[in-house]
Write a structure and sequence with these properties.
Structural class: mainly beta
GO molecular function: histone binding
Oligomer: single chain
Protein name: Anti-silencing function protein 1
Number of strands: 10
Shape: elongated
GO biological process, one term: DNA replication-dependent chromatin assembly
Subcellular location: Nucleus
Largest sheet: 7 strands, antiparallel
Order of helices and strands: EEEEEEEEHEE
Keywords: Chaperone, Nucleus, Transcription, Transcription regulation
CATH superfamily: Histone chaperone ASF1-like
Distance between the termini: 31 Å
């Protein structure tokens, strides 16, 4: 494993549902990488229907030197029109993925709870969802899945004639 995530710090949590996601990713790299790392932020409102997943943003980070590295990432809020009404309130998932050369090497999943910003609306939700009154809170305990990938492919110079 050439890259290991050390920390993901949400800089605006809890926040309004419509706010951007702002966080800092800190990772360690055991050797310099030739190509960029690709990071994606995905919102999963309905676990049974992948077609409803929303990629909120992606970014490339590189060149990546050996050692401890960090970057700040900002992702858009989910598009409310793409979330089934029954799945707006309650728990959803937020997934940060890291890839190198089109190979996913890590997936960090968080639970996000979405609710109204006051007790009265929590207990008696309005019949039509009022997105301007929703707040989100992201769990501090992620679920991390690591995948083994080919970090270093042989170069042409290593082929013997």
């Amino acid at each position: 494993m050439a890259v290991t995530i050390r920390n993901v710090e949400f800089m605006n949590n809890p926040a309004r549902f419509s706010d951007v996601y702002r966080f800092r990713v800190t990772f360690e790299c055991i050797a310099p990488l030739e190509d960029d790392l690709e990071w994606k932020l995905i919102f999963v409102s309905c676990p049974g229907d992948e077609a409803l997943d929303q990629e909120l943003d992606d970014c490339l980070v590189g060149p990546v030197p050996q050692g401890i590295n960090s970057f700040e990432f900002e992702g858009s809020a989910p598009d409310p029109s793409r979330i089934p009404e029954d799945d707006v309130l309650g728990v959803a998932a937020l997934i940060l993925t890291g890839s190198y050369r089109d190979q996913e090497f890590v997936r960090v999943g968080y639970y996000q709870n979405t609710e109204y910003d006051n007790e009265e609306m929590k207990e008696t939700p309005p019949s039509k969802i009022m997105f301007n009154r929703l707040v989100r809170d992201i769990s501090a305990k992620p679920r991390v899945t690591r995948f083994h990938i080919k970090w270093w492919a042989p170069t042409n110079s290593s082929v013997q004639h």
